Amino acid sequence: MLQIEQLTKKFGPNTAVDSATIEVNEPAMIGIIGRSGAGKSTLLRMMNRLSDATSGKIIFEGRDITSLKGGEKRRWQSECAMIFQQFNLVPRMDVVSNVLHGTLNRRSTFSTMFNLFPSEDIHRAIDILDRLGIAAHGPKRAEALSGGQQQRVAIARALMQDPRIILADEPIASLDPMNAQVVMQSLRSIHEEDGRMVVANLHTLDTARRYCDRVIGMRDGRIVFDGTPEQLTTGVARDIYGADDSFNEAYTSTEIQTLTRVPA
Ligand SMILES: Nc1ncnc2c1ncn2[C@@H]1O[C@H](COP(=O)(O)OP(=O)(O)OP(=O)(O)O)[C@@H](O)[C@H]1O
Ligand SMILES: [Mg+2]
């Protein structure tokens, strides 16, 4: 389904992603872990073509994604929607309009300028918000919502594009543990119920283990682990994070219980 072959990104002398090769044969839910600077965001940005690879290839269902240009590139970008740590909503705009912006890439400049949305799109936006449990907030300004609610609005906006793949760059890094779990559960149900592929950069091991079918570990731009949550033992994790024996998994945890056990 998706082949990433020897994908490399250099920034000057610095190699952010170093010959990454990943093969995905079914629409899995994949977590990417690794310490800060390991190349996780750069990898996602290349997949979505926000950033161009220095070398290597991305093939999706036989199509060479790395060489797409113009309209074809934009079409790909709507097939693989991206969500971010900071939600990237328009804060003063109402929630429903924020979600409707997920359809902008297929609307005319004219209707965009005058904020004219077809009623079927409005109904779809509300249905998606309902599915994510936040339809009641539809008329509110995005900035009036909690972080977890705002991230669900961002997921709703992504779903408006009806994407094949959802790329999530640290989707829960700004959220408290409760909201983090709600957002991860939303991504998991979108994966299970709709059969969409989800690729999420995650800071916390337990989140990757609990919600993902497959975990990829990056270190210094290289893929150093690719396996199931069961194979991701503490020893393997220590290696991915380049940590010594003092490495404590709890420090990378979103668990409320675990958090209370970690000394301040
Ligand atoms: N636009 C850029 N220009 C120059 N260097 C960059 C750029 N973007 C990323 N880098 C470098 O590439 C490397 C990988 O960065 P990247 O943001 O992909 O890491 P990350 O794993 O997402 O880290 P974090 O967990 O902190 O988000 C880092 O050394 C970073 O400094
Ligand atoms: Mg990052």
UniProtKB/TrEMBL annotation:
One example GO MF annotation: ATP binding
Sorted UniProt keywords: ATP-binding, Cell inner membrane, Cell membrane, Hydrolase, Membrane, Nucleotide-binding, Translocase, Transport
One Pfam family recorded for the sequence: ABC_tran
PROSITE patterns: ABC_TRANSPORTER_1, ABC_TRANSPORTER_2
Cellular component aspect of the GO annotation: membrane
EC class of the enzyme, as a word: hydrolase
Gene3D superfamilies: P-loop containing nucleotide triphosphate hydrolases (3.40.50.300)
Entry annotated with the keyword Ribonucleoprotein: no
Keyword Acyltransferase set for record: no
InterPro entries, per database record: AAA+_ATPase, ABC_transporter-like_ATP-bd, ABC_transporter-like_CS, ABC_transpr_PhnC, MetN_ABC_transporter-like, P-loop_NTPase
Domain of life: Bacteria
EC number(s) reported in the record: 3.6.3.27
NCBIfam families, per the entry: ABC_phnC (TIGR02315)
Protein name: Phosphate-import ATP-binding protein PhnC
